């Protein structure tokens, strides 16, 4: 296997890629060993129009309800059945990993997200600041594989609206 | 096709099939900063190979996003007010695979003035190998349930 096997790269790009990955690996640790049952982590995220565009473009979801930013106009109020532009239903679920993989700790190698059970309770308006809270509720071994379970809530920092709840498992080395 | 015709109504029968979406697991998107760049298993062939993977694997959340896009097409604003989506990633989505989303209405449970729809969902590749499986629950015509 080579770095440029699936996409064209010059020697400079290959060297930059290997340097980046070496940097990630240098401080890596195993997720299982980082987490204790009962660990609670929490961070605030302002869901800007630009962040939503980055998320939606990555999965090629071009629903106009999510457009609070448009080329040429830039910031726009947008339109959805709820008034202005809203956040895609599972966007906050993707950002949960940035909370549970505590950003103050080393890169967690070999971790794979295996499942989620998510409740989308209310639409999140673009521009909202939310608090994502994760709590480690279980660590278990199944078929010789190690899993860590978290429960998650996402609330509006300004008005307390509970937008989202989730239970999710991570497979760890 | 008029997208409004896709909307599920109280009269939509059990067994109704949602319109599928097709997406290619493009490595440039899998490795974008917002999606998978934090973990080289999602975009680097060499790193993925060293950890025993056949190829870089897509983050599971990308499959969940594909499924939720299909569900928004069919349930509209109801997907944002009291919906539930459960996904289990049973096989890895590999770089360059073409993924198709699927959904079939399994059950309609009377609720208030309307119904709680239960829809089996999954994704598969060109060979029909299932990658993500689960279900979605959405209220249809349940007035004021989430006011």
TrEMBL record, chain A:
Xref: SUPFAM superfamilies: Thioesterase/thiol ester dehydrase-isomerase
Cited InterPro entries: HotDog_dom_sf
Protein name per the record: N-terminal of MaoC-like dehydratase domain-containing protein
Organism the protein comes from: Sphingomonas psychrolutea
Organism phylogeny: Bacteria, Pseudomonadati, Pseudomonadota, Alphaproteobacteria, Sphingomonadales
Automatic annotation (TrEMBL), chain B:
Domain of life per record: Bacteria
InterPro entries named in the record: HotDog_dom_sf
Full protein name: Fatty acid synthase subunit beta
Organism: Sphingomonas psychrolutea
